[in-house]
């Protein structure tokens, strides 16, 4: 996909109503409080003994992410970084973690977030990987402002 196609997907996610029930499809999923899309997925790394393929795949995804971040920053201002470690820890302790933060925290260390206060939502981009042999994924996620405790201005 091209940057324009990714931006079109992001724009659609930002305004699309949240589904009434949780679902998973071949490009992500969603639920009553969120949308999640896998914008780009690398190959897996089961046979990447020297790690070179993973390094190259991460560089490719990082280039795409950086391009999207630049475009969204022009549109919505600078993103802020959300550390997903506390959400992962909370989930391990059995505490409720709202989606898509629960799903993302199991694969992503941090995400770049743009508040969409006029919509009561936020949009995030991140690169993640569930395990070193599995593909790297460039995620786009949209969630309710309350999932990140954002106030009406969009900042926590």
Outline the secondary-structure elements.
Layout lengths: L2 H13 L7 E3 L2 E4 L2 E8 L10 H25 L3 E4 L1 H8 L8 H5 L4 E7 L4 E8 L8 E8 L12
Q: What is the CA-atom radius of gyration, in angstroms? A: 15 Å
State the total count of DSSP E strands. 7
Oligomer: single chain
Q: Helical stretch count?
A: 4
Shape: globular
How do the helices and strands follow one another from N- to C-terminus?
HEEEHEHHEEE
Give the tally of structural domains: 1
Low-confidence stretches: 151-156
The largest sheet is: 7 strands, antiparallel
Beta-strand content estimate:
25-35%
Which structural class matches the secondary elements? alpha+beta
The order of strands across the largest sheet is: 1-2-3-7-6-5-4
What is the arithmetic mean of pLDDT? 92
Helix percentage = 25-40%
How far apart are the first and last residues' alpha carbons, in Å?
33 Å
């Amino acid at each position: 996909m091209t940057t324009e196609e990714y931006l079109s997907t992001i724009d659609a996610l930002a305004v699309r109503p949240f589904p009434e029930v949780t679902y998973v499809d071949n490009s992500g999923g969603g639920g009553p409080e969120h949308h999640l899309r896998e914008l780009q997925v690398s190959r897996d790394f089961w046979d990447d003994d020297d790690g070179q393929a993973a390094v190259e795949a991460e560089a490719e995804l990082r280039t795409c992410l950086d391009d999207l971040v630049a475009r969204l920053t022009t549109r919505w201002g600078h993103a802020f970084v959300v550390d997903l470690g506390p959400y992962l820890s909370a989930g391990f302790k059995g505490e409720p973690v709202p989606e898509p933060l629960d799903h993302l925290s199991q694969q992503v260390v941090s995400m770049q977030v743009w508040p969409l206060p006029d919509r009561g939502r936020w949009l995030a981009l991140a690169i993640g990987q569930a395990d070193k042999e599995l593909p790297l994924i460039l995620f786009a996620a949209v969630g309710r402002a309350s999932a990140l405790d954002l106030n009406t201005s969009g900042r926590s």
